[in-house]
Design goal:
alpha+beta, Nucleotidyltransferase, domain 5, 10-stranded mixed β-sheet, 9 helices, 31% strand
Length: 349
């Protein structure tokens, strides 16, 4: 049976998976939770990805992703404060993600991206846990259907997540040599900065910042509360932000958020670029940053302001010199799939 390859990106809000040369892409909420007994089979959405229950190595069942977010009383976010919370919980979630792409008996090489601030020992522990043959038992909470499969992970590379976008960008541009670069990966709860020097991540020039997409939604929420006297949960604004909407409906009335959204997005972007400039100061004096990339879900709203701020600070000649991938949400996962596929093919040759 031929080897299969998958790239995964363990982000603050979502776990992304790329498979089949990026032709198949999946997103799951980056969360697991305890099982809450209750009604099943009533949901209109009966998809596996939104109704996934998986059995852990201890025999305990866990809700995964959307099911955990909406149904679990006790929830375990996989990422917070810019780093992976627990290798054990991440392992459960990554096995769950494999159920979307694997069949019984499949053998995989996988690349996994984790937040930049994740300690190296945690990254090594996750890689160790992922390698080997895993008996995966899961069920669909809406339909009661069950799956059981044995999946072997021959090799698992665990790398700082923006590296996936770095690799994907170079391959798309047909660049075969490593170049110095800075990647700004804007997630829901944190922003990661990854500096690349001679093809290697520079840890002292990389880091995380708490300002991210939820900073924007919190500030918009407060403004709306001051304006309307009604509390709008920041999380509920996220969908409007993702869809690029300039207004929201509160209590049957429509309110514009365009001006406040753009104002705060610009201010937060300046904070992000200031941090990028500070971190670059730790790069070796012979480094020459040729490429800036803005990726992650926050790239849709913050990207143009990041480009503008970089140009204003003379870090790039013109705004377009900061590249935003066509699919900035999935670019890390797609890049990691390319990494493991290319390295395996190089060894075969």
């Amino acid at each position: 049976m031929p080897l299969k390859y998958a790239g995964m990106d363990l982000g603050t809000s979502t776990l992304k998976t790329s498979f089949d040369n990026g032709q198949k892409k999946y997103k799951m909420i980056s969360m697991i939770g305890d099982v809450s007994e209750g009604w099943t089979g009533m949901s209109t959405d009966k998809s596996w990805i939104n109704n996934l229950v998986i059995e852990g190595s201890d025999g305990k069942e866990y809700f995964v992703g959307e099911l955990a977010r909406t149904q679990s009383e006790i929830k375990y976010p996989l990422v917070s404060e810019g780093k992976m919370k627990s290798a054990e919980n991440a392992f459960i979630a990554l096995k769950s993600s494999l159920t979307n792409v694997a069949e019984d008996g499949d053998e995989f090489i996988i690349g996994v991206g984790v937040p930049v601030a994740t300690p190296m020992n945690e990254m090594k522990e996750l890689s160790r846990m992922l390698k080997g043959t895993h008996e995966i038992k899961c069920r669909n909470d809406a339909t009661g259907e069950k799956k059981q499969m044995a999946v072997t992970v021959k090799k698992a590379m665990v790398i700082p997540e923006p590296y996936g976008t770095y690799y994907w960008t170079l391959k798309e541009r047909k660049v075969d040599v490593a170049i110095d670069a800075v990647l700004i990966d804007i997630g829901h709860g944190s922003t990661d900065f990854l500096a690349m020097y001679q093809g290697r991540p520079m840890r002292q020039s990389s880091g995380s910042l708490n300002e991210a997409t939820d900073t924007l939604t919190n500030r918009i929420s407060k403004k709306l509360n001051d304006q309307t006297g009604k509390y709008v949960r920041p999380y509920e604004l996220m969908k409007s932000i993702e869809l690029g909407r300039d207004s929201v409906m509160i209590g049957g009335e429509t309110f514009s958020i365009k001006d406040v959204k753009n104002y705060y997005a610009e201010q937060i972007s300046k904070i992000m670029v200031d941090e990028a400039g500070r971190l670059i100061g730790f790069m070796p004096p012979d480094s020459f940053v040729e490429l800036y990339v803005c990726c992650g879900g926050g790239a849709y709203i913050f990207g143009p302001f990041i480009q503008k701020a970089l140009a204003q600070m003379k870090m790039i000649a013109k705004p377009e010199d900061c590249f935003i991938p066509p699919d900035p949400v999935m670019s890390n996962a797609m890049g990691f799939e390319k990494v493991v596929r290319d390295r395996a093919e190089d060894k075969e040759e």
